[in-house]
Inverse folding.
């Protein structure tokens, strides 16, 4: 069974899971987890890519495609 985005009114399939840690003011995104959990939220690609966090919070996007893209950019950057 396909899980759907947890944003109200969004019928799109989920591709990422969002979690948060209030104590560290941190929000994290990972590739869709194997099972739903009541303390996380599933998001579609649009809502995951357009996510913003409150001022002072840190967004850690750990989705594999994002991590691979950041590594490729770092490897292509000229040495300082």
């Amino acid at each position: 069974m396909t899980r759907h985005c947890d944003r109200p009114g969004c019928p799109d399939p989920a591709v990422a899971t969002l979690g948060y840690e209030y104590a560290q003011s941190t929000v994290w995104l990972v590739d869709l987890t194997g099972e739903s959990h009541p303390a996380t939220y599933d998001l579609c690609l649009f809502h995951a890519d357009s996510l913003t966090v409150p001022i002072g919070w840190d967004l850690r996007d750990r989705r594999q495609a994002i991590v691979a893209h950041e590594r490729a950019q770092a490897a292509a950057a000229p040495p300082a």
